[in-house]
Amino acid sequence: MIEDEWLTGWDPTPGIVSVWAEPDGTATLWRRLDRALIREELRFRPWIVTSYADELAAPGITYRELEGEGSLRFLARADDLATLTRAALAGAGRRRGHELGHVRELADEVIVLAPEEQYLCASGQTYFGGLAFDDLRRLQFDLETTGLDPDRDRIFLIGVRDPEGHVELLEGDEPALIARLVATIRAADPDVIENHNLHGFDLPFLQRRAELLRVPLELGRLPGPLRQRGARRGAAAGDRKIRFVAPGRELIDTLDAVLRHDFSTRELPSHGLKAVAKAFGLAADDRELIRGDQIHAVYQRDPERVRRYARSDVEEVALLARTLGGAAFALATMVPRRYERLADAGAATGVIDPLLVRAYLRSGAALPRPAISDGTEHSGAALHLFAAGVAHRVVKADVASLYPSLMRSFQIGPALDRLHALLAIVDRLVEKRLAAKAAAKRAPAGSTERHTFEALSAAMKLVVNSAYGYLAAPGLTRFADVHAANEVTRRGRDVLDVMCRGLAERGVTLLEADTDGVYFAVPETWSELDERRVVTEVGALLPPLVSLEYEGRYAAMLSHEPKNYALLGYDGKLVLRGVAFRSSRAEPFGEAFLRDAIAKLLAGDVVGMHRAYLATITALRGHALPTYDVSSRVRLTKPPAEYLASRDVRRELSYEAMLGAGRTTWSVGDRVRVYRTLTGANIVADPDDETIGVAVTDARDPRDYDTEHYVRLLRDTYASRLARAFTPDDFATLFGAPDQLSLFGAPIAEIGPVLTALGPAELG
């Protein structure tokens, strides 16, 4: 029973939709019961865990010693958190002989959580007990602005979709517009506020405009302005990122769910709302599309078109949040953190660490100091590339969570975890993940239910698989153990060897194998029943709890490099995997060429593939492609002063593009689209990516790109990713110097793809 409590808590208080706690020990809960909202005011005693009892000798502090050998063994409580942190700093200062300024300096000697996490850990409560995702009252809003700089630009329209699904468009004078948004949100009283890139653009822009215009921005259920917290992704605040918080409501950015989903699947063409909505089938056929830098100009001459655009934005956000929201929602029913924090949390430090801290405190057990590396290197995961080129009749056999399964099967956990809590939590997460995966398969293809279960399965998989990475991260995670991680890796290699030998002995051609599974080609005479039989037979050879599943079958596969391949389904659907075929930095024209060329290649149309290559060259040289199609999305990693100081020694394309466009200020982390001209570089607006940090205001497309540079890029970068599909001579014939190619030459019609077995030296 206590192991179940480690994962899901022990207080079944139902219907919690938001928690807010203060350092003074006050906590407010909002619960939704039978659609009615209940607000509860509670008191709790803030707590910390420290390694020294003498730090706790101060009025108002009580403590008890936890059991076991862990260094962090004193659980201290007081009526307010400030009393505890002052005592800890004073005690540590006496020991060290100098004053300390912040508890961050005691990271290895004290555990101090955010007040609401302290409340949830101590109470054993979690969010959403007895609720389904659709029981939440969710509101979506989206700003339309004259530009991206809140100090200079303004809001001219706000789309709002209320929890009942009604869309209202707010327009007019900007101060009144912001006040109407606040009033609309307070009247609708949503539990959750959602938008795509909410924390990267809309909230920071809205907050700054409200501040400049002196309009109170009370979006929460408690009086007062928005609060702030540190975050991995959000608005820039000096040298760190922050997110705004509205106490009593959960602020959900659907971009977080998209990033989490695509980290697992690698299927999305981009992470912008329009592209994602289209990929998931959420966009209407008549969806209005307007380039981001043109919206205000269009509004001035055709406001109704922009209104349609804004309405679609909030409607698509609502659908997207429902489609991918199952992951964070499920995590919030288990992990002692606020829902909105779990939406962007890292799986190891953001999910597993809080679960383990709560488990140890629930058991009254002392916690260890964060693990420190003893110098042992972590051995890499097994990855084999057996053949490169084009294979037909391909099968994917999936090893469901191999490393966590080995941890469970052989009871391999961190040496510091004397409660074996990590293994117990992984056990239960694997069960939940497999149940979600099975439910996704039962749901109709393309349905919201399938996407929801896939999102849940992907989230559980990320957390479960991160248990192995958690072991191998000394200095980052509390219970890290690289020796245990290496033992898991060793056994993983043994399992892959057994699996690959078993498949090879049954007459298949191995293509690629790693910890996720194996791709192999089967003889022409085999049926799907034969494929499934072989997978079942080989699965029976594996250790207990390690499951080999028949994942899918494909008409053809291009094997390029380890973890970089393309699959053509029997239904004609093309799937690309790996940075060689899909990268956020890739030029759209190159990716478009690859997708078209690979589809034709795998369908057996080599002449058509060659024709696509020549057509792309013609389009480049004729400037038929928009400038956006030759641009590359890059991240700025140097502040302006640093780049300008080194500019005389080395000039870099992305920064030269910024300077050439008249942009002399930017923030580290901004992403821009740049392209090469004959005389230098420039930037270009991104029509379908809400994460962009810079856009040009000139809507005209100069198409002044360096055509011969991009022709060389097409040949040397993109076409080269097809090299392993052909012999060297045939590849030279197909993709040699463009001016010497012949479209209808007999040799091209006779060229066919090849599959080349790789020797031991070429294994990944």
Characterise this structure.
This protein has 764 residues and is an alpha+beta fold. The chain has 24 helices and 25 strands. Strand 2 and strand 3 form a beta hairpin. Helix 13 crosses helix 16.
Q: What would you report as the Rg, rounded to the nearest angstrom?
A: 28 Å
The average pLDDT is 89
Give unreliable regions as ranges.
688-699
Category from helices, strands and their pairing? alpha+beta
Largest sheet: 8 strands, antiparallel
CATH superfamily of the largest domain: Ribonuclease H-like superfamily/Ribonuclease H
Strand content: 15-25%
What is the terminal separation in angstroms? 44 Å
Strand element count = 25
Question: CATH class of the largest domain, anyone?
Answer: Alpha Beta
Per DSSP, the total helix count is 24
Helical residue percent band: 25-40%
What's the shape? globular
CATH architecture of the largest domain: 2-Layer Sandwich
Instruction: Look up the CATH topology of the largest domain.
Output: Nucleotidyltransferase, domain 5
Q: What's the structural domain tally? A: 5
Topology diagram in text:
Elements: H1 2-8, E1 16-21, E2 26-33, E3 36-43, E4 47-50, E5 62-65, E6 74-77, H2 81-96, E7 110-111, H3 115-123, E8 138-145, E9 155-161, E10 167-171, H4 174-188, E11 192-195, H5 198-213, E12 227-237, E13 240-245, E14 250-253, H6 254-265, H7 273-279, H8 295-301, H9 303-324, H10 326-332, H11 339-343, H12 348-362, E15 383-385, E16 387-399, H13 402-409, H14 421-442, H15 448-471, H16 482-505, E17 509-514, E18 517-521, H17 528-539, E19 548-561, E20 564-568, E21 574-577, H18 588-602, H19 606-621, E22 632-635, H20 640-646, H21 653-660, E23 671-676, E24 681-684, H22 707-718, H23 728-735, H24 746-750, E25 755-757
Parallel strand pairs: 8-11, 11-14
Antiparallel strand pairs: 1-2, 2-3, 4-6, 4-7, 5-6, 8-9, 9-10, 12-13, 15-17, 16-18, 16-19, 16-25, 17-18, 19-20, 20-21, 22-23, 23-24
